[in-house]
Amino acid sequence: MRLFEAIIDANHRALAGDQQAGLRPAEFAGELPIVALSCIDVRLNPLLPEVLGIPKDQFIWLRNAGNIITGPLSSTLRSLALACAIKGGKEIAIIGHTDCLVGRTTTMVLIDRLRALGIERQMLPPNVNEFFGTFSSERANVIKAVDIVRRSPIIGPAVPVHGLVVDIETGRAEWVVNGYQVLELTGARPGAAGAAGPSMDSLGSPGNFEIGEMNFPNAKIGDTATKTEDWLSGRVQPSPAKPSPPAAVQAKPAAPPRIPVPPPLRPRFRLYKGRN
């Protein structure tokens, strides 16, 4: 049994009334510590450590509003990457929770509340939803975040990335993305080195550069404006577009592997009081 298999098993048995249920961290020393990203909801403060059963010194806990990840090179991804590279995190878990206030806040309500803080609409990015990463489904938000982390070039390709949703009332953990199964689909193995992953170039990152190395166009702004005016007046015909290669020659992008979603578990139970 692997680490998160044991975590989910202990969580479900404990809430079903098994007083002996609990995680035995010594049996999973090679898979600890874990790195967890959760919401900032204060109700998680006492709940989440008990849900996972992970000792405090083996639990690297990152938090933001709504456990939202907006991009593969975002500041949240940087923290996850550093937690693995510097703090030695072996596995990552994105943990959402039911009754999330961020998920229940509409765009218009968010704009109104920001306005009440003195932030007018014109001061915000054009696409508020994209910038703040708002969502309506906690489960879908977790699956999306796991996918972004899994595709990030700064996360080790053999690091398992799991997705969980915790019931804020009972503490029941639903394992919505099994990171072990994803690695099996991609052919990576925990602890393996050198596995192929997306590159920085594939994400369009500018990388490091010196301003003196940049090449600027030689055309002058006035020349460009004149040529544009001639083209619009019909005095100069636009260059014909290059024909596209035949459909048979065009390469089709490889479809990404689907993230396996375990079936929901429905027992009713209470949190366990202790662990070995």
Polypeptide structure, described:
This protein is an alpha/beta fold. The chain has one domain (3-201): Carbonic anhydrase (Beta-carbonic Anhydrase, Chain A, 3-Layer(aba) Sandwich), CATH 3.40.1050.10. The chain has eight helices and five strands; from the N terminus they run H-E-H-E-H-E-H-H-H-E-E-H-H. The chain has helices spanning 3-15, 44-52, 75-85, 107-116, 128-132, 138-151, 179-186, 221-233, and strands at residues 34-38, 59-63, 91-97, 161-166, 173-177. The chain has a five-stranded mixed β-sheet, sandwiched between helices. Helix 2 (44-52) links the parallel strand 1 and strand 2.
Number of helices: 8
CATH architecture heading: 3-Layer(aba) Sandwich
Spatial order of the strands forming the largest sheet: 2-1-3-4-5
Poorly predicted sequence stretches spanning 5 or more consecutive residues = 204-233, 265-270, 272-276
Integer-rounded radius of gyration: 24 Å
Please estimate the helix content.
25-40%
For the largest beta-sheet, the strand count, sense and barrel status come to: 5 strands, mixed
Instruction: Tell how many strands the DSSP assignment holds.
Output: 5
| Fraction of residues in β-strands | 5-15%
Quote the average pLDDT: 79
Shape call: globular
Order of helices and strands: HEHEHEHHHEEHH
Tally of discrete structural domains: 1
What is the end-to-end distance? 17 Å
**The CATH homology group name:** Carbonic anhydrase
User: What structural class is derived from the secondary structure elements?
Assistant: alpha/beta
CATH fold field value: Beta-carbonic Anhydrase, Chain A
CATH class annotation: Alpha Beta
